[in-house]
Specification:
Chain lengths: 544, 308, 302
């Protein structure tokens, strides 16, 4: 080995300079692809996570759901007013508990096979199959026989499978029988759990059927590439039933988990839109000034729950709910133009105008809060507030801690990581918990989705609030098909929670918004709906 | 020598088993339900189906035995969270990217750190010496998330010279590997400077000089070669650093390696992935130590005596 | 393994070189004082510690008081380091954060020393087969990254506070210290006076307690300052990954993490705690270098 020093160093310097120079060069090229103009319909976007699964039966998260809803055709989509709009189903009849969907005749799988009602029957029963062990099987529990089959021991599985009341009457007619009226069932078809899968593909490739080389889909886009944890590439499906209306040729997606890294990629011009997965709260004040900033209302409620065992006096709970300055938390902490929440059911939900309560203040009402506190019997002055350690919650907790100090309550904040946090919350919650924070994002468009959480048997009721009267109201609403009557029942239920006479097991803080960054060339056509879904088939890149 | 190697190899087996057992036991201590990912409660039937599917309903010793058997046959099991993939899939697709990141970081260290150390040693107490040692000290001390943040802001966002994040073209790879390479770079600069200064004092170098060999030749033939031996053996301790650093760097630069996914997997209670990655990382470190020790034994017979 | 542990290897500490017997601490002190860099580092280190202790006591600002109108101020006379998103004074909070960071640093370092000394002393003192077995394990585990095990440890404990952080940072970081201590004891055991002590029948615990352990003290003092930066950076890494300690308390690491998301508009929030970490680490490295040169002049670099 004969090394010559100056040469070695010279070589090192040359290489280093070359690297930097090449780096500079790349900068010039980078602009070109982004400014392709109106001709190139290629959208570059950032996805907020690696999809855990692109199997409609197994997917549970927002990212998977949004990829799926763009490569698969649901029976029904949600219109701007959240009413069902025909998609793969051209029409449907609702007769009490029986819903019949009529499929279009031009639905095609990407291998040329027609999309049939049998595909849906197969797919839904597959999702309920105990052997598939789908996390979201319970989304289908509204169908007669579904829960029993999902719960089946291996020996009875085959028999119970046939009892699931979903039936393809012919290639284009699908009949479903429900356990109760469930007026929201047709809207539920817009959820990814109700998509169809291609039976031969699933059976041939097993768990690997979702890889781009194997997958067969039936939507506006095809999955052209999926580099795990790195990128997702979609290309236009030229054979799709409405392909003529789809402008985009390609969607080049990068997976960027870290919020700040996502924003940087956007600002450097590497991506044209984010997926609405959230902007870093600490940077919101600056981002809101940008012309590319966009916000959408969401069906979601951010709330603090009380453990009724530890804070048994309703007046103390009212005092605490009144001392929270919701508007200040939104303006100074959360900063994403959320709406101060005065009830569990969020603004934008059908029936909201009937259901809403205006007992809770949007800004702190310290006088009232102190009044309530004075009425409280043996108020608890040293309490523990639990939150999970995801970004943003700590800041809200610190703010609330300071607000409750004003009514003489000394708060200890405890952060826990998510999985452990859920264990602590129960139900029933651990005795260490006095107050906890959670949020609820709607699965489907009906207040039921938010109000049934507080029934005494609900797995999501971590407050120990248990009221037979409340349970009866919810059960009654489940069987009330008439919207007007149902909303009235919901109003009574909401009043039992957050109304003037309510038990106040929770203190809602704000109703969520989705915030996003979108280049002005796509801002008009890239839209996120109330359930956090976006339809890429509607996106057009225009010249600006 | 052969006896030493054999003894050394044989000892790694119980250590690997111990690491697997420790990781397995640790994972079992962690509370939390891998199947409850959102606030939505999981119905009992769904929970039971999932536990059956992933064998979590079996007693722990059966699970442990199955796991050890799996590791022995190179099967790390299915991921509990990424349902379309097995741990092997994840390792096969994402681990090479982490290795590439580590090697590139190592490359920066050799490319810039070694020459800096050599130059510093050739002119001790010169301005260059102080400069490179100052750089080395600062390189050690600055938290890599600050370095990464500043690099991305200036190089990518402000000047638009390199992409902010990702791992596709070689331009994407410069900033993450440089950030990760900073500490090894500082380390090499110090290490090479130190060993070179020491070698320059050795008798044989003085003799060579006395014999009238040209300075350059003395430096290249004798000094540098001897000084590079510790650089080779430094690979093992650096490996640990690079693994640790990659957790942060992969996160900030959105590098789709395994370091980034580790943290996610622990919080998602993806037991099989956490186990698989921990065991894999440990085995790599253990293997690297083994190789370095054996190399060292060959290069420097004295250590063999001292260590056995 | 951390950067500074690597530095330890550069420094030659784990070569098992015994610190000079004479234990002339005064000599060492004099030598240390001659090293200008180390003295400056020592003084700066002390200043930082004093600042962390004193400022929260005398500061006019309540470090946890929320004043939204004062949010995100740049450095000024009344707020030398500016304020954070809640309008809290960062000068005071940085001092409080320093208490926690340095506290965790020393806590974890002491834990590492305790485990390391116990393991190393047993191995080195008992010798023979046990030593062989214990050392083979160390050989294999050497360089095992502490971060995955720290993350696992935190997940098991569930809540992150001062003590859980200490546990997490020491649980897989003691391998090198153990090896160093063992090396020291092995070498010391061969000394004539130890052999003499054995020969005249002094009990083993007396030998260990009176002759062997005290003579490893020099190495241990160096080790404290070698481990400290690694632990402080480790705490910062964990905080950065979202595993930091509970609010309203903050360490430098968790303050920097808060600052990263806002760095475009308010860069001081990430830069100040990061520079505090860097300064402390730098000081500790210089102190370790100075101590090594002072206590073990044989390995002194030119």
């Amino acid at each position: 080995m004969r090394l010559r020093f100056p040469m070695l160093i010279a070589a090192a310097v040359v290489v280093a300079v070359a690297l930097v120079a090449a780096g500079c060069g790349s900068g010039d090229k980078k602009g070109a692809a982004g400014d392709g103009g109106a001709k190139s319909q290629v959208l570059k976007m950032a996805w907020g996570a690696e999809p855990p699964s692109l199997d409609p039966g197994l997917a549970t998260d927002t990212t998977s759901s949004n990829v799926l809803l763009n490569i698969m055709d649901p029976l029904v989509r949600l219109g701007d007013d959240l009413q069902p709009v025909a998609a793969l189903a051209e029409s449907w009849d609702v007769d009490g508990k029986v819903v019949t969907f009529h499929l279009r005749d031009d639905g095609r799988w990407t291998n040329g096979d027609p999309v049939t009602a049998q595909d849906f029957e197969y797919s839904w029963k597959r999702t309920l199959d105990p052997k598939l062990a789908a996390d979201y099987a319970y989304q289908l529990y509204g169908i007669v026989g579904a829960e029993a089959y999902n719960n089946a021991k291996p020996a009875q599985a085959a028999k119970l499978r046939d009892k699931v009341a979903v039936k393809a009457l012919d290639d284009r007619t699908l009949r479903v029988t429900l356990t109760s009226a469930q007026p929201w069932f047709v809207q539920q078809m817009a959820h990814h759990s109700f998509l169809a899968v291609h039976k031969p593909t699933v059976e041939k490739h097993g768990t690997k059927w979702t890889e781009p080389r194997n997958i067969v889909t039936n939507g506006a886009f095809k999955l052209a590439g999926w580099k795990h944890d790195a990128s997702i590439t979609l290309v236009k499906n030229a054979d799709w039933r409405n392909a003529d209306d789809v402008a985009l040729d390609r969607v080049e997606g990068r997976i960027i988990v870290d919020g700040t890294t996502r924003v940087q990629a956007f600002e450097a011009g590497e991506v044209d839109a984010l997926d609405g997965g959230g902007l870093p709260p600490a940077d919101m004040a600056r981002l809101k000034q940008m012309p590319e900033y966009e916000k959408y209302p969401a069906l979601g409620t951010y709330y603090y729950g009380f453990n009724l065992k530890n804070i048994p006096d309703v007046n103390q709970r009212r005092a605490m709910a009144f001392a929270i300055d919701r508007q200040s938390i939104i303006d100074n902490v959360a900063q994403a133009d959320q709406i101060p929440a005065t009830g569990m059911v969020p603004q934008g939900m059908p029936g909201f105008d009937v259901i809403k309560q205006d007992f809770l203040p949007t800004s702190a009402d310290l006088d009232k809060a102190k009044e309530f506190m004075a009425k409280a019997e043996d108020p608890k002055r040293k309490i523990t507030l639990f939150h999970n350690d995801a970004p943003g919650h700590k800041e809200v907790a610190v703010a609330v801690q300071a607000m409750w100090k004003d009514i003489g309550i000394d708060v200890t904040i405890k952060a826990q990581e998510w999985a452990q946090y859920l264990e602590v919350l129960g139900p029933p919650p651990s005795d260490a918990v006095y107050v906890y924070r959670l949020g609820w994002i709607g699965d489907y468009v009906d207040p039921m989705n938010f109000l049934e959480l507080w029934t005494s048997k609900s797995g999501n009721n971590n407050t120990r609030f248990a009221s037979p009267a409340y349970d009866r109201l919810i059960a009654q609403a489940r069987d009330t098909a008439d919207d007007h009557d149902r909303y009235e029942l919901y109003r009574q239920a909401e009043a039992m929670l957050t109304g003037p006479q309510g038990e106040m097991p929770i203190s809602p803080i704000y109703w969520y918004t989705y915030t996003n960054l979108e280049r002005e060339s796509v801002k008009d056509t890239f839209n996120i709906n109330l359930l956090d879904q976006f339809d890429l088939s509607k996106v057009v890149i225009k010249e600006v | 020598m052969a006896a030493y190697i054999i003894r050394r190899v044989v000892w790694t087996v119980p250590v690997v088993l111990l690491v697997i057992f420790m990781t397995f036991t640790l994972m079992k201590q962690i509370e939390g339900n891998p199947f409850r990912k959102t606030e939505r409660a999981v119905p009992a039937a769904v929970q039971a189906n999932l536990e059956r599917k992933f064998n979590l309903n079996k007693p722990w010793y059966v699970q442990y035995a199955q796991y050890v058997k799996g590791v022995a046959t190179g099967d790390l099991g299915p991921s509990l969270v990424l349902r379309d993939r097995t741990v092997n899939d994840i390792v096969e697709e994402q681990f090479p990217r982490s290795i590439e990141l580590g090697l590139l970081a190592f490359g920066w260290a050799v490319l810039l750190g070694v020459p800096a150390g050599v130059l510093a040693a050739m002119r001790p107490n010169s301005r260059f010496d102080y400069g490179s040692m100052l750089f080395s000290n600062v390189g050690f001390a600055l938290p890599n998330f600050l370095v990464a943040t500043l690099l991305i802001y200036f190089v990518s966002v402000k000047w638009g010279m390199l992409p902010t994040s990702g791992w596709t073209t070689w331009q994407h790879k410069i900033l993450p590997s440089f950030t990760l390479g900073l500490v090894p770079m500082a380390y090499f600069a110090r290490l090479v400077r130190g060993t070179m200064l020491e070698t320059l004092q050795q008798d044989y170098v003085r003799t060579a000089k006395a014999k009238g060999l040209r300075r350059r030749r003395v430096l290249t033939v004798h000094v540098l070669r001897n000084s590079l031996i510790p650089v080779v053996t430094a690979a093992a301790p650096l490996l640990g650093y690079i693994i640790t650093g990659s957790f942060i760097v992969e996160n900030i630069f959105a590098v789709p390696g395994i370091g980034r996914y580790y943290v996610t997997a622990v919080s998602a209670r993806d037991y099989s992935v956490v186990m698989g990655l921990t065991v894999l990382l440990s085995i790599i470190v253990i293997a690297a130590n083994l190789v370095v020790d054996i190399l060292y034994g060959i290069l420097d017979p004295r250590t063999r005596e001292a260590r056995t | 393994m951390s950067a500074t542990q690597i530095a330890g290897r550069v420094a030659g500490v784990d070569a098992g070189a015994p610190i000079r017997q004479s234990s002339l601490w005064q000599d060492a002190w004099r030598r240390y004082l001659r090293n200008r860099g180390a003295v400056a580092a020592g003084i700066l280190f002390l200043l930082i510690v004093v600042w962390c202790i004193v400022v929260p006591i005398v500061s006019p600002h309540d470090p946890n008081r929320i004043e939204f109108p004062d949010a995100y101020q740049g450095p000024s006379w009344s707020h030398p380091f500016g304020t954070d998103q809640f309008g809290r004074d960062l000068f005071t909070r940085a001092a409080l954060g320093g208490r926690i960071s340095i506290g965790i640093g020393f806590g974890a370092t002491l834990a590492i020393l305790l485990i390391g000394v116990a393991y190393g002393a047993i191995s080195g003192f008992v010798g023979g087969k046990l030593d062989n077995a214990l050392m083979r394990f160390l050989d294999a585990l050497y360089g095992l990254p502490y971060l995955p095990f720290a993350i696992l440890a935190l997940a098991i404990i569930g809540t992150v506070n001062f003590w859980t952080m200490v546990v997490a940072l020491s649980v897989a970081s003691w391998f090198i210290t153990a090896r160093v201590v063992r090396g020291q004891i092995m070498t010391l055991k061969e000394n004539d006076y130890v052999r003499a002590a054995y020969a005249v029948g002094v009990r083993w615990y007396m030998i260990l307690g009176r002759h062997l352990l005290p003579n490893t003290l020099g190495v241990l003092v160096i080790t404290i300052f070698l481990e400290l930066p690694g632990v402080i950076l480790g705490e910062a890494f964990l905080s950065f990954l979202g595993l930091g300690i509970n609010p309203p308390d903050a360490s430098w690491g968790s303050m920097a993490q808060d600052g990263r998301d806002a760095y475009r508009a308010h860069p001081h929030i990430i830069i100040i705690p990061s520079l505090a970490i860097a300064t402390l680490v730098l000081c500790a490295n210089f102190i370790a270098d100075g101590l090594r040169d002072a206590l073990d002049p044989r390995t002194k670099e030119t």
